Amino acid sequence: MIDDFVRAVEAILFASDEPLTVEEIEGHAGEGDVKAALEELVSHYDGRGVELVERGKRWHFQTAPDLAHHLRREREEPRRLSRAATETLAIIAYHEPVSRAEIEAIRGVQISKGTLDVLMEAGWVRTGKRRETPGRPLTYLTTAEFLTHFGLESRRDLPGIDDLKAAGLLDPLDEEALQLALDGDEEPAEEVESDEEDA
């Protein structure tokens, strides 16, 4: 029998519009062992149609992965990312925090501000601290929403090329884009100023 505190934690997570940290749950639930309650709920929901998961130190309920195909018709299809956006997202994920000039150095071409805007609007990328270098460029990082969307607990869970090939998830263009992202730190390039900052 689940006790009242565990039920309260369960209700808080169900009612929340977004994943919650342990501290945020404690703020709503009051006195009690939130971590123990979460462990009990994880066990309680194991093997059910929904499951309690932790992604990026935030907790939420999600549909069990093996049942996702039943809900596909109910979900809005996300917009497919352009190749530039896919490469940019991969570079940020594998190298964060990374500046725009560093992204361009890895990709070998300039990126328009619109590419970063698309990733920020999707909630997958955010701005970080400015580098303490001339021009003090902004850096970019992935978000908790990025981890949640891709089912990652942390960035350590990002797959390598061999993992993606084994799963049959890479076509030749995607493989080339990811290889660029993974190899990008071999040769740091100088930051080059561009007149197309907002292009």
Q: Would you give an account of this structure?
A:
The protein has 199 residues and is α+β, with helices and mostly antiparallel strands. It has two domains: 4-73, Arc Repressor Mutant, subunit A, CATH 1.10.10; 83-186, Arc Repressor Mutant, subunit A (Orthogonal Bundle). It contains nine helices and five strands. The protein has a three-stranded antiparallel beta sheet with strand order 3-5-4. Strands 1-2 form a two-stranded antiparallel sheet. A hairpin with a 7-residue loop joins strand 4 (125-130) and strand 5. Helix 1 (4-15) crosses helix 3, helix 4 packs across helix 6 and helix 4 (83-95) runs parallel beside helix 9 (172-183). It is elongated. It starts with a helix and ends in a 16-residue tail after the last helix.
Helicity, in percent? 40-55%
- Radius of gyration computed on alpha carbons: 20 Å
CATH architecture of the largest domain: Orthogonal Bundle
CATH class of the largest domain: Mainly Alpha
Keywords: Cytoplasm
Protein name: SMC-Scp complex subunit ScpB
Pfam family, one: SMC_ScpB
InterPro entries: ScpB_csome_segregation (IPR005234)
Topology:
Blueprint: H1 4-15, H2 22-29, H3 34-45, E1 50-55, E2 58-63, H4 83-95, E3 98-99, H5 100-107, H6 113-121, E4 125-130, E5 138-142, H7 144-149, H8 161-166, H9 172-183
Helix pairs in contact: 1-3, 4-6, 4-9
